[in-house]
Amino acid sequence: MREAAVASEPNPLQRIPGVAIVLVLLIALFGAIAPGFLSVANLSNVLVQSTILTMLALPMTLIIMTEGLDLSMGAVLTLTSLCVAIVSLATKSMLLGLGAGLLVGVAFGTVNGWLVAILGIPPFVATLGTLGMAQGLSLIVSDGQSVVGIPHSVRDIYSATLVGIPVPIVMALVTYAAFHGLLYHTRFGTYIFALGGNREALRYAGLSPNRLLIAVYAIGGAMAGIAGLLMTARMNSGHPTAGLGLEFDAIAAVAVGGTSFERGNGWLLGTLLGVLSVGVLRNGLNLISLPSSVQVASVGVLVIVALFLDGLRSRA
Amino acid sequence: MTDISKEAIMPPRSFLSQDAIQVFYRLLAALLICAVLAVLSDSFLSLGNILNVLRQASLTFFIASGLTLVVLTAGLDLSVGANVALSACIAGTVIHKTGSPALGILTGLACGGIVGLLNGIMVTALRIPSFIATYGMLWVLNGLTYWYMAGETLHGFPAGFRQIGSGYLFGLPIPVYLLLVFLGIGTFFAQRTIWGQEIYAIGANPVAARLSGIPVARRLLLVYAVSGLMAGLASIIFLSRLNSAEADIGESLTLPAIAAVLIGGTSLFGGVGTVFGTFIGALILTLVLNGMNLLSVSANWQPLVTGIIVILAVWLDMKTRRRTQ
């Protein structure tokens, strides 16, 4: 396991089967039982709907690789989405809205990192606390109401296309490329592997694990900010429960994608396939008219099964 | 070997132990909050409000007491709130369908206990980290509850059943008597029985506990089942107090329960804490939220404050322990 933590390129061949099989099975299943699932319109719909989750699941992968967790992501996304809505409504400027969302997201991410790295509070409790804080702030800034009437410039982001490709998908692809480059082709990426695999080695190498850890959580917050813009554009409003439980879908995607919770091993492409698996599962269940409550439950089952298999693999 | 294991199982507990001192500080804090609130608000010291605080604290305590045992083993149960919601909805349906509160109470308790047992199986047999396993369970239960209720609300239960949550006996709300009973049972179980002491030993050092012959998996299973059972009990009291059941009643319960455990001085790292401490924790949290209510702070502020309290409590706990070590 040490070797895997040191080498920046994990051995993907070993893991391709797991998540790829899940995805193919899900597509085959819904292709067979859900009318219209395999239509181009529906499949592109799945892709567009998976973009927000991609933006959360990629940083979540990095955080989980450091043996951490960020339960606050969904609530922070809700808050940043509201900030985007409120600021862009007030200033009529999409960029100022995005700036506000980013600022709030990075602030929350930094606080998470600070609580985990400097105060040493276990990540799941620290981020559970900030989940409550973000949820509370969302209720306070919105007074429990939807924020409506946001400018066209924000709305158009979700529906516009760039050379025929929907802008959200372009944003998700750019995000993936950025994370791939960051994790596999920069020194910072190697340090992230070391944060989960061998933190002592970082210290001996004269680096500050704490600062790196804060940076990783701050990246998570920043992505929640950008995803907040997409969420506001998608719903055409800011809503105080918009991101409820999204962090769970993100954790599910990471777990299904084969990133380990205990060994500092992460695989970004796996996470991407995991995101698609969650997206296909939700979309397929939706098409066969099962309510969203069943979708939520089935994602829960998906996570538990994935973690069980992860545990089996680690013991094998 | 026998000496070591005995010490691990039965740590010395004199009258003024570390635990007692920790509880004493927290009692002082609770009194201080009372004093501040009595000055700030005229209605705080009214009998009605004090009974209300006790009743509210007892609801938090029921969930938090089972959770305390889980946290003592260095685990966490994030599914308690969702468990309360599902158990309440199922118990409510049974009462409506059969007209028998006793049957409803039994189903609610059974539902809570089974969910807890499933959590325990995931943690012990499948070896999934408890916070992830119970977090997955949270969403499974949420999904099930919303699907089962399909947006409906159950209301209107028999008057006798409603007495459990809203009735009085000798001037005190009935939940307060239940609180005293379970505070007694919980404290006795944790401090005075071998099983209870084994739970402390597992939290303090799971390897040592296993090597000294404690059936760790079985004790963990018990602990998660008890946590689920207490959530089931809380669901009954909620149901009878609110006189209605909806799918979303559990959403605001988990964070306060965790807050109560942590304020009460139970360490997230296991092996340290008391059920009585959790009672004080529930009291402190309820006093703060009640105070905000009396000072007409909007309920929207409650999750923010609870979140801050959770983080503060863990931080304080870690700070004081580092100093004493």
TrEMBL record, chain A:
Membrane topology: Multi-pass membrane protein
Record lineage: Bacteria, Pseudomonadati, Pseudomonadota, Alphaproteobacteria, Hyphomicrobiales
InterPro entries hit by this protein: ABC_transp_permease (IPR001851)
Full protein name: ABC transporter permease
Subcellular location: Cell membrane
Gene Ontology CC: one annotated term: plasma membrane
Domain of life (superkingdom): Bacteria
Keyword set, alphabetical order: Cell inner membrane, Cell membrane, Membrane, Transmembrane, Transmembrane helix, Transport
Automatic annotation (TrEMBL), chain B:
Cell compartments where the protein resides: Cell membrane
Gene Ontology CC annotations of this record: plasma membrane
Membrane topology per record: Multi-pass membrane protein
Keywords: Cell inner membrane, Cell membrane, Membrane, Transmembrane, Transmembrane helix, Transport
Subcellular location, principal: membrane
InterPro entries per the UniProt record, alphabetical: ABC_transp_permease
Name recorded for this polypeptide: ABC transporter permease
Organism: Bradyrhizobium frederickii
